[in-house]
Amino acid sequence: MTTPVRVRFAPSPTGPLHIGGVRTALYNYLFARQHGGQFILRIEDTDQNRYVPGAEEYIIESLDWCGIKFDEGVTGGGPYGPYRQSERKEQYRPYAEQLVRDGKAYYAFDTPAELEKEREEQKKISPDAFQYDSKTRLRLKNSLTLTAGEVKRRLDAGEPYVIRICIPADQVVKLTDIIRGDVSVHTNILDDKVLFKSDGMPTYHLANVVDDHLMKITHVIRGEEWLPSAPMHVLLYRYLGWEDTMPQFAHLPLLLKPDGNGKLSKRDGDRLGFPVFPLKWTDPASGEVSSGYREAGYLPEAFINFLAMLGWNPGVEQELFNFGELASIFSLERVHKAGAKFDFEKAKWFNQQYIKKLPDPFLAGLLSKALVPHGIEAGHEYLEKVCGLIKERITFLNDLWDYSCYFFEDPRVFDQETIRKRWKPETPGIIASLAAELEAVDFSAPDLLEGIFHQFLEKNSLGTGAAMSPLRLVVTGKAGGPGMFEIMHLIGKESTLRRMHGYRFE
Ligand code: GLU
Question: Which of 29, 68, 364, 482 is the most buried (most CB within 10 A)?
Fold first, then answer.
């Protein structure tokens, strides 16, 4: 029998969730669903200095908006809880002490000032930065260099300490990453990372390995920034005697700036005008507000489809996939090794495609809400018809009002460019005679109006351009939009003629 798949998303609540983090959660979720496995949300909050109030709630709300659901985790609980590391604090110390007893870790008492001095000294003699490792540890203040009695005295006296992993010299650590293949690292480049601190808290490295083991995680799917730590994690599994059940690793490629190399950052979003967070975020310290996809008018399904394709290739031409389809065709093997360039135009395209597919009654409900701030109420049937006409053209849900306002009120603002290009000295006369023509017409069908319009052009020897753009301008205020005769039919004769007579450009 194969072990059931168990994967986890393990964010640290140090700020808002970046879209790269959402993608990591998504790939974990799709992988779990595909294998009929479990998906766990674990909050890694052992670094108290970096804790940001509200970040955990933000992460949960974001994933909820995206439709990424957990089988176990901080909100719903589960058999391997608690799922917040600060609440599991007591579990880690015994493992750290076991490692010390087994000679795989040691106590270190060097003060921050002493370590700083080491760094300064190192700078003078070599371009390589100082590392606490097999070359330096034997001249530093730790349980490998101090006597057992001295170590005990310091611990009993409550002196601050850390427990560091003892990375062996001259070895090669190998691991097989599902995305990257075989990875091997020489231990001489690794440093003796801190595993545990005297405040009783483990660091990320120890807590992560211990929890992945205790929570029976089978696959660790996470961002590429953790690849350099993976060999050390492999050593920890080995030292703790858990190598047989060690999870498989898959390190996901970075999301890159749209216009260059390097990781996509909030600054890129600010600079190029797109959000890098799923929801709006207000920084509790500075009060600075960052925009979010939800507030920008994205549909979660479109956002998810777009994110899924950033760094993963479905192997077919098709680009639009719902959650179920994504789960059935997703594969870690087809995740790219190279970073994925963020493409905001593509994000918009996805949103457009999804808005187009929304049923008219659903969009009508949203439109009805969008009308409230404008003090407008309209019947559902009318709203549905309006949505049917405009939905092909909308990129963001927030565009609903802009694209539909003239169905509810006479235009007050007129497209300046159309006025400049299309409004000729003879145009008012053309609009007036067309209005006169329409007086006698029944507005019951768009075709009928179209027929009359073309007869009018012929009778007056006019090209379509001479009348169509000006007609659209006075009736809607816009340069473009859905079929003009559909619009006239829907708003009706009275409104159309009133606008054809009453327009006034600033
Ligand atoms: N807490 C880590 C983070 O914030 C999790 C890394 C991992 O998944 O192992 O990214």
Answer: 29
Measured CA to CA, the distance from residue 100 to residue 166 in angstroms comes to: 9
Quote the pLDDT of residue 361: 97
- The whole-angstrom separation of Cα 445 and Cα 486 is 8
Contact by Cβ (8 Å): 29, 63: no
- Rounded Cα distance, 356 and 350, in Å: 10
Strand intervals (E) in 70-160:
72-73, 105-108
Residue 158 falls in which region: left (phi positive, over 0), alpha (psi -120 to 50) or beta: left
Catalytic residue among 69, 89, 216, 266: 266
Taking CA atoms only, the protein residue closest to ligand 1 atom 10 is 11
Are the beta carbons of 109 and 161 closer than 8 angstroms?
yes
Give, for ligand 1, the residue of 208, 219, 254 to mutate: max count of ligand atoms closer than 8 Å to Cβ: 208
Q: Which of 15, 8, 22 is nearest to 63 (CA)?
A: 22
For the chain, domains (ranges, CATH) are 6-74+207-255 (3.40.50.620), 93-196 (3.90.800.10), 266-355 (1.10.1160.10), 359-399 (no CATH), 416-502 (1.10.10.350)
Helix axes 89-101, 204-214, angle to 10 degrees: 100
The pLDDT, as a whole number, for residue 260 is 79
* Burial per residue of 76-102, b for 16 or more beta-carbon CB atoms within 10 angstroms, e otherwise: eebebbebbbbebbeebeebbeebbee
Other Cβ atoms less than 10 A from the Cβ of 46: the count is 25
Which atom from ligand 1 is nearest to the alpha carbon of 24? 8
Give 13 Cα–ligand 1 centroid separation in angstroms: 10
Question: Per this entry, what is the length of the chain?
Answer: 506
Residue with tokens 């996509």: 264
Percent of the chain having pLDDT more than 90?
96
The pLDDT tens digits for 7-63 are: 999 999 999 999 999 999 999 999 999 999 999 999 999 998 899 999 999 999 999
Helix/strand/coil for 399:
helix
Closest listed residue to residue 320, CA positions, set 349, 363, 298: 349
**Banded model confidence at residue 1, pLDDT cuts 50, 70, 90:** low
Write the pLDDT tens digit of every residue in 325-350. Answer: 999 999 999 999 999 999 999 999 99
Secondary structure letter of residue 483 according to DSSP: -
Cα separation of 463 and 479, whole Å?
17
**C-beta of residue 208 within 8 angstroms of C-beta of residue 202:** no
Q: Say whether 266 is catalytic.
A: yes
Q: pLDDT tens digits, residue range 444-492?
A: 999 999 999 999 999 999 999 899 999 999 999 999 999 999 999 999 9
Distance 501 CA to ligand 1 centre (A): 65
pTM of the model: 0.91
Q: Residues with Cβ within 6 A of ligand 1?
A: 10-12, 44, 204, 208, 220, 222, 226
Cis peptide before 11 (omega within 30 of 0): no
